[in-house]
Amino acid sequence: MIKFIRFAHSLSRFSGAISTILIITAVLVTTEMVFVRKILNYSTTWHTEYIIFSLAAATFIGSPYVLMKKKHVSVDIVTHYLSARAKKILSFLAAFLSIIFLVVFFYTSLELFLHAWNKNLRTPTIWNFPLWKVYIFMPISALLLIIQSIADIFSTICDYKEPESNH
Fold it and tell me: What's the pTM?
């Protein structure tokens, strides 16, 4: 179980790095877009779409990292008053329900990706960007979230705590 947990955590860290790269490129493209439009007085064609798509992809692909670090939004007013055993049961229940949702999300987002791939769907703009390149991030992130959720269950079972790091 520990090897699986470490494997899941390495996948989640990698997805977090990809998310960071996507956010940085969105910021750089935004800066370049402002320069081109306001300083050079040129129109832009692909910038806005790239920014929207990269931030959406970063949100999806970065979610396993957020789950691993337990930095997601949670309401702990109830769990604060629960016993350790009740907290474990609630943790299992939450992970199990999350996995059910994520399996459905994986299936439907995979269908969306395959539809865009098979039909060669593109944005209706001058950039004409292939939509499958955006949609692929949804099933990948769902699969990574399933793996991370299973790792969370295993971590709860064997009381595994990831060693603290400086970042």
Answer: 0.89
- Band the pLDDT of 167: cuts 50, 70, 90: low
Confirm if 130 and 120 have CB atoms less than 8 A apart. yes
CB 19 within 8 Å of CB 65: yes
Element (H, E) at 10: helix 2-34
**What's the DSSP call for residue 74?**
-
Which residue blocks in 69-136 are alpha helix, DSSP H? 84-118, 132-135
What is the C-alpha separation between 135 and 34, in angstroms, rounded? 27
d(CA 67, CA 91): 13
Q: Is 68 left (phi over 0), alpha (psi -120 to 50) or beta?
A: alpha
Q: How far apart are the first and last CA of the chain?
A: 25
CA–CA dist 25, 126 (Å, integer): 21
Q: Which residues, at least 6 apart from 160, have a Cβ–Cβ distance to it below 8 Å?
A: 1, 2, 5, 154
Could you give the percent of the chain with pLDDT greater than 70?
Answer: 97
Percent helix, strand and coil across the chain, each rounded to 5? Answer: 75, 0, 25
- Asked if residue 15 lies in contact with residue 141, where contact means CB atoms within 8 angstroms, the answer is yes
